[in-house]
Design a protein that fits this description.
The chain has about 300 residues and is an alpha+beta fold. Helices cover about 40% and strands about 25% of the residues. The protein is built from ten helices and 15 strands.
Length: about 300
């Protein structure tokens, strides 16, 4: 790529009117400038400048070549300024993936508010409960529940949320006389159907905290209904297909609507940590930083945050 440097030096000599002036402008010696011109003319096999002790003039070939050098320098300048500008004003595309549990209630609203402030941002949001490969799928930012399994990515904890063990009120009412809320709670709940999201697997273990027990109660449940996403899971639970877990920020909305109720009032599951993960190892782009900050702020809002 040395010829690009030779071309830049040649253009500077033409613009400054002499080798001496170009040398001063570039903080180089006259001999270095002359060497650049010599190598360039040798590589091209043409004479670019007619030089005398008093003046220099472009040859016809040199004039045509100089025009292309000007275009090259202009493009380089625009690229430089564009890169710097992108760190001042967020613009361009950003691809973000997150689980369904967080995308609709947390990520999408946060990015929507960010876009209203910076309309030049072009977001691509991908709701996926599975962990997509960041590099393979061209993902700029992944919002994930739990640590990243790859040490090659950078991640930062940006918040947490809890799930609520819940069911439709009508479904739960038929079992209320059978729940003793004792150490045999797993056995009590075994009479109920359990709606599992795809990521939960065939056997489900929950550590449930509630006021009448000092230590958390371990629940071992066997799903009998399966769904491939959170919206489908919630829909099954609401229609009375069984009990299941729903993130608290979604549960509270559905509770107010009378669609869901807690299986054990006042209980809660251990919190789920949320991480922002990306593959930018050195300097995180401004656009990605702003997205992380917006999502973190939304996740810590009073309607979501847990203590």
């Amino acid at each position: 790529m040395n010829y690009l440097r030779h071309m830049a030096v040649f253009a500077k000599v033409v613009e400054q009117g002499s080798i001496s002036a170009a040398a001063e402008e570039l903080s180089l010696s006259k001999s270095v400038i002359s060497q650049h011109l010599k190598v360039l003319e040798q590589e091209l096999g043409i004479m670019l400048l007619n030089r005398t002790t008093r003046r220099q003039t472009l040859t016809p070939a040199g004039a045509a070549f100089y025009e292309k050098c000007q275009q090259m320098n202009q493009l380089a300048q625009e690229a430089w300024e564009g890169a710097r500008e992108s760190q001042l004003t967020p613009t361009g595309s950003v691809t973000i993936t997150a689980p369904h549990a967080l995308m609709g209630s947390i990520v999408a609203p946060a990015i929507g508010e960010l876009v209203s402030v910076y309309p030049a941002i072009i977001p691509h949001l991908v709701a996926e409960d599975g962990r997509l490969d960041i590099i393979e799928h061209g993902i700029d930012l992944a919002i994930r529940v739990g640590d990243s399994v790859s040490s090659s990515y950078r991640q930062r904890r940006i918040g947490q949320f809890r799930d609520v063990l819940c069911a439709a009120p009508e479904y739960l009412s038929q079992f209320e006389d059978e729940f003793s809320f004792s150490e045999n709670l797993s056995e009590d709940l075994s009479v109920c159907d359990y709606v599992a999201n795809a990521w939960q697997g065939k056997y489900v273990i929950h550590h449930l905290h509630y006021s009448t027990q000092n230590d958390p109660v371990t629940l071992m449940l066997h799903p009998t209904r399966f769904a491939d996403s959170l919206p489908t899971t919630v829909a099954l639970i609401e229609t009375g297909a069984g009990l299941g877990i729903v993130p608290e920020f979604i549960f509270h909305q559905r509770e107010e609507a009378g669609a869901l109720t807690e299986v054990i009032p006042g209980s809660y599951l251990s919190p789920n940590p949320v991480y922002a993960t990306h593959a930018f190892n050195h300097s995180t782009p401004l656009l990605v930083r702003l997205c992380i900050e917006a999502i973190e702020s939304r996740l810590s809002s009073p309607s979501v945050v847990v203590t």
